Amino acid sequence: MKRRDFLNSMALGASMVVPVGRGAWAATSANPTKQKLVVIMLRGAVDGLNVVAPVGDENYLRLRPTIGLSAPGLDGGALDLDGYFGLHPTLAMLQPLWQQKKLAFVHASGSPDSTRSHFDAQDYMESATPGRKNTPDGWMNRLVATLPGASTPSRALSIGPVMPRILSGPAAAVNLPNGAAATRANILDRPAIGAAFDQLYAGHERFGRAYKDGKDAHKEVMDASMAGEMNMADGGAPLPNGFPDDAARLATLMRNNSKLQLAFVALGGWDTHANQGAGRGQLANRLAPLGQGLAVLAQRLGPMFEDTTVIVMSEFGRTARENGNGGTDHGHGNVMWVMGGAVAGGKVYGDWQGVADSALNEGRDLPVTTDFRSVLAQVAERHLRLSDRQLAQIFPAMPQRSAGFQIITG
């Protein structure tokens, strides 16, 4: 099967965690890590209908009389995107990226599995095998193992309290805690202790390689950080308040360590069952630092942003109707965000069917008309230059349906 045919057939704290294996690499490019990918997971199910709101649909405010965004130009109103959709007003710092056509959205996207369980839905999105609970690894770990070029321990990085499901597997990856403490020296940086551990693991048949990879990765990250200074539903994920600082730190690491190619960050606080608010309130307070962090990331990456794709996704969306507590409950379809130099931005993609009662899934939420894997696979193929065989390894058992749009220009 040709690569294009494959894509068209798809639808819908200290600091280091020592890796448990190594990827297999085949050098096919003089600069195999030039194209970067950053994935942001919003744990808890962000309300996509208030992130990119269909303010041009008369049914929108009927379903959301107190939490719906006002029309553009009104107090607390949405920011006009295309005359029909409006962006949440706290995301104004991202408007320049939209206008530069480096930011796009895919609405009514998500997992084809119907679960409304946070745990299961996050697992399916991180394994990229919806409905299958026994997948042993995450799709980003499989991606690490298929990328061309020489193996380095710090090629894939996660920022968060623990190594996430999406990067779990045999390929090497690094996990950093959130905040400035992530790049501080740990106990192994003390010469005497480090030497003792080196001697302990030097000849160990099972753990020696993993220990060396973990120590090498730690050194690479520490070197990059020092160079920069001198020049529940949440699954343990922190609130986005500290994301601008983490985004700035991530950009510094990526600029100073050319071997770092993939990054993952999880942010919590999106399970807004009550007091969600509209242009202001709980959701707005979460979106503001998220938008600020994304803008910081794009700015701090500098020219490297042109070779970077950033994806923001969440396990599922929320109900179209507000509930009696001024919030929204677990839904189905949501909106994915895609930004970067290779993005055909300035457009809301997807098979959008509106929010009339007859268009809603089970009469309550958006249907999933674009499988989230079709967006991920398009980024992997057109931005990271992977073959059809490699795509099949990363996204097994894909449905035979077309996504119907091209969001990556590479």
From TrEMBL:
Stored Pfam families: DUF1501 (PF07394)
UniProt superkingdom: Bacteria
InterPro entries, A to Z: DUF1501
Residues of the signal peptide: 1-26
Annotated keywords: Signal
Entry protein name: Twin-arginine translocation pathway signal
Species the sequence originates in: Massilia eurypsychrophila
Lineage of the organism: Bacteria, Pseudomonadati, Pseudomonadota, Betaproteobacteria, Burkholderiales
